[in-house]
Amino acid sequence: MENIMLITSGNQDVISNRYSIVKSLYVEEVGRYLRDYQTVIDFIQQGINNGISNIGLVLNNKVYDSIVQILYNGGLYGLVKVWILPEFYFDKAELKIEQDFLFIDDYNKPRLESFQVHLTDMCNLNCKGCGHFSNIAKEPRSLELGKYRDDLQQLRSMFWGVERIYLLGGEPLLYQNISEVIKQTRQIFPDSEIHITTNGLLLPKMEDNFFDVVNMTKSHIEISMYPKTYENREEISNVLEKHDLVNTTIIWGRVVFTKKMLKRKHKTPQKSFDNCYNRKNACYFLQDGKLAKCPMMLLIDIFDKEYGIRRECKKEYIDLYKDKIDGWKALELLNRPSEMCSYCAETPQEFEWDIKSDNDAKAEDWFVEE
């Protein structure tokens, strides 16, 4: 690449060192939180006037989407090429990054904020009222690697990137091929933050290769602090320290469990949709070639089969292969309420965490008290 202007919220000198491989380098410090977006536009316009043809955004995933949209709205699209350089790729030791990790933005496709992937129904806790119904899954299912890779490639054809991808379950560490899932996810979505959401109890039993893959792919281990996790916190912390994991989040506070399912449909699905946790956090759900608004859309069959429930509504989702739609249309469908939202309460109810396997679980564990 002959010339590039880097716009970064990081340290100017460090960024310069990291990009020593670029022949002609222009670095501009924008400010940590990039509040002044007009400054960004001014920098880019100045670069264009000086013959700059490439703009590199060295930002965290939550910030640079806004900048990209401003470039598009400001009429600068077509005058420069925009390259995406996620901060999580920077090696703190080497202070540089290989040129292969530059990602060009595609204005013809939207960007997906996030999605979840359910690796397995199996779990080592079997929590009461599990949102993925893992504790009552009679025949636990697991992700098929080949299908998963196909699904990721199909999503890639619809969206130019994904901000965050969550790998969970059940308990994701019980999935035998989790390291391969992480590698495939990183290969197809190199610009995404990969989060492995776990109760952490199995971390001391994981092989070294798992931790090597987590570090190599810059993935993020996210540990929920269940009571049993807290009891084993010292052993878990020692393992994390031993493997020098760069990206780890431990949610030390009490894990809050909520239930929101209604026995009967209500007439205001829009209110439930507006208040939905999954909607506010864009937790779309990917499973077997289908992309849904939330996990319930694709996993509710486990609950209905267990308790003999027949729902008088269709379960809306996007079939990535049969529905001939682009990413823009997909986002439109994902961001409006469906008939299934009529079975969710406007306000979820909290309950105390407990273990309930399929032998002693009951439907009331999920139903809101009306």
Automatic annotation (TrEMBL):
EC number(s) recorded for this UniProt protein: 4.1.99.18
Signal peptide residue numbers: none
Any one GO molecular-function label of the UniProt entry: iron-sulfur cluster binding
PROSITE patterns on file: RADICAL_SAM
Pfam families (UniProt xref): Radical_SAM
Start and end residues of each Radical SAM core domain: 105-345
InterPro entries for this protein: Aldolase_TIM, Radical_SAM_PqqE_MftC-like, rSAM, rSAM_sf
Keyword presence, Protease: no
Keywords of the record: Iron, Iron-sulfur, Lyase, Metal-binding, S-adenosyl-L-methionine
Keyword Membrane: no
Name under which the protein is recorded: Cyclic pyranopterin monophosphate synthase
Organism whose genome encodes this protein: Roseburia intestinalis
